[in-house]
């Protein structure tokens, strides 16, 4: 019954043929980083929902939310190579639609909450939407709210007791087949891994996680491909050395456990001496390096034997290559971050020389990873800069190289160092058209170097690049986005030519004044201050 003051909202979905194309893109390029779905079941769900709509039958709210979240995620990640799918006029049109689908998803979430709806598909949709929010606006309040709603819904369905012998009689679990339980394990453990990892980042949730290890009874998901999960058939748990569609997910769980262990060692409110804090940094370094040594060979950067495998081998698939890039990026970003505060001290104090070396080495690895990915010529390369975590890693690495350049004496300055910094800025410059906060990151990076090294090869290189680029030249195709290109170029030229008048920037410079004591700088809070607390 609808009252006279009630508003009936209409939720739009793409046509069935369009949804199939969007789903293909999602499965091929996006799901590999958070594989919380069962592809055969998802494909069947799409057909069932559209069949229900055509028959004028009420469809599942959770399924609708899942499809809309996939639309939001896919249109956001749409890149020029996807134009051959002929779904949008170009990637700019696709990207612009992402916010429309986000609004649609929020309306469906509101309806689900009003009707107390809870389903596995709804949780999957919430998780996907959480990552869309993270890419659009970082780990914002809205992003965290969506994620916490997913956790609340999961506990409502008793997913935290999936493998609890005393919970097997619960109605929600009794109705679940073993195949559905396996997908539920993926969903639950993905939320666990995200919750524990999120506590590492500077946002209101820093140092805090919701899901307690001792308050859940859920086995880890099996290392199985989607094709292995069939109703009525025993699911085979493949060895970790065998590449599957969730190999990356398995490693993310391991990494999250490392993060949780490090957090538990230093409770909130604990004040430690500098020596104790640095010992914790070295312990974290040891755990991350141990993690690097224990990853399967197909995720290792040092495994040259992969080149000898046939191109049809799963370990050489585009999925695994993109996942190897992302996992390595995560690990080296973390190494760069924990050692960055000691970069300056490591220049003059042998006690911290190790931190300086590790910080710079990991920063260089981050950029080498980008070059390797470009050589692989994968579709993911074209949309990587739209991922907030990738941009955060690139900026962190660029800051390490810039600060190292600031700390060097003029006699130590080399062409190689200038080329490194210029290469980092080139990536940030390329990202501006895909990710607006990149312009702020680039400006901050340039200003830091110019503040302490008004004459530096990297500044000369960038000045030449900027001077040689026309806003409407071959480098920038005529699209709606290109209208803003001249504004971005002006911003860079302004950064190169004059001091910024931004009060926020001046606060950063004041922190960097004097001896540049990097221990006093919380780089995550610095990112947060410029609206870029990227996950």
UniProtKB/TrEMBL annotation:
- Entry annotated with the keyword Secreted: no
Chief site of localization: nucleus
Q: Which terms in the GO cellular component ontology are assigned?
A: nucleus
Q: Where in the cell is it found?
A: Nucleus
Question: What InterPro entries does this protein map onto?
Answer: Sec_Metabolite_Reg, XnlR_reg_dom
Residue ranges constituting the Xylanolytic transcriptional activator regulatory domain according to the UniProt record:
33-240
- State the name under which the record lists this protein: Fungal transcriptional regulatory
Organism expressing this protein natively: Trichoderma arundinaceum
Output the lineage of the source organism. Answer: Eukaryota, Fungi, Dikarya, Ascomycota, Pezizomycotina
């Amino acid at each position: 019954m609808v009252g006279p003051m009630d508003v009936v909202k209409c939720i739009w979905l793409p046509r069935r043929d369009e949804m199939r194309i969007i789903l293909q893109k999602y499965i091929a390029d996006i799901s590999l980083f958070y594989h919380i779905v069962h592809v055969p079941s998802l494909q069947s769900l799409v057909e069932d929902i559209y069949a229900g709509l055509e028959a004028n039958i009420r469809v599942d709210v959770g399924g609708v939310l899942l499809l809309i979240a996939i639309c939001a995620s896919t249109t956001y990640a749409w890149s020029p190579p996807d134009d051959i799918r002929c779904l949008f006029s170009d990637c700019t049109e696709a990207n612009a639609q992402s916010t429309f689908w986000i609004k649609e998803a929020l309306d469906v979430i509101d309806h689900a909450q009003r009707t107390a709806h809870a389903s596995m598909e709804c949780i999957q949709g919430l998780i996907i939407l959480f990552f869309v929010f993270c890419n659009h606006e970082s780990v914002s309040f809205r992003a965290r709210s969506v994620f916490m709603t997913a956790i609340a819904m999961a506990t409502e369905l008793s997913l935290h007791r999936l493998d609890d012998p005393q919970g097997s009689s619960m109605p929600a679990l009794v109705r679940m087949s073993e195949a559905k339980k396996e997908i539920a394990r993926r969903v639950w453990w993905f939320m666990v891994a995200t919750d524990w990892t999120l506590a590492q980042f500077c946002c209101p949730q820093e140092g805090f996680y919701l899901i307690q290890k001792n308050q859940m009874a859920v086995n880890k998901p099996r290392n199985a491909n989607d094709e292995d999960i069939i109703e009525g058939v025993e699911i085979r748990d493949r060895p970790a050395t065998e590449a599957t569609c969730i190999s990356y997910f398995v490693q993310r769980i391991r990494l999250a456990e490392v993060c949780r262990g490090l957090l538990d060692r230093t409770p909130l409110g604990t004040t430690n001496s500098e020596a104790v804090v640095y010992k914790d940094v070295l312990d974290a370094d040891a755990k991350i390096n141990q993690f690097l040594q224990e990853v399967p060979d197909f995720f290792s950067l040092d495994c040259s034997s992969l080149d000898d495998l046939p191109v049809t081998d799963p370990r050489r698939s585009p999925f695994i290559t993109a996942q190897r890039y992302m996992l390595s990026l995560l690990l080296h970003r973390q190494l760069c971050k924990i050692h960055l505060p000691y970069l300056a001290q490591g220049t003059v104090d042998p006690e911290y020389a190790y931190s300086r070396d590790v910080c710079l080495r990991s920063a260089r690895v981050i950029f080498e990873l980008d070059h390797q990915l470009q050589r692989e010529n994968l579709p993911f390369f074209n949309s990587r800069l739209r991922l907030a975590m990738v941009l955060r890693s690139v900026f962190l690495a660029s800051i390490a190289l810039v600060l190292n350049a600031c700390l060097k004496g003029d006699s130590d300055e080399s062409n190689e160092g200038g080329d490194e910094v210029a290469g980092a800025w080139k990536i940030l410059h390329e990202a501006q058209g895909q990710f607006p906060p990149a312009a702020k990151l680039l400006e901050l990076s340039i200003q830091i170097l110019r503040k302490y090294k008004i004459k530096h090869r990297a500044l000369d290189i960038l000045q030449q690049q900027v001077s040689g680029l026309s806003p409407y030249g071959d480098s920038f195709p005529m699209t709606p986005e290109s209208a803003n290109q001249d504004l971005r170029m002006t911003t860079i030229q302004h950064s190169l030519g004059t001091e910024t008048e931004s009060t926020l920037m001046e606060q950063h410079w004041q922190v960097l004044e004097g001896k540049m004591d990097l221990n006093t700088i919380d780089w995550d809070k610095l990112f947060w201050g410029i609206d870029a607390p990227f996950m």
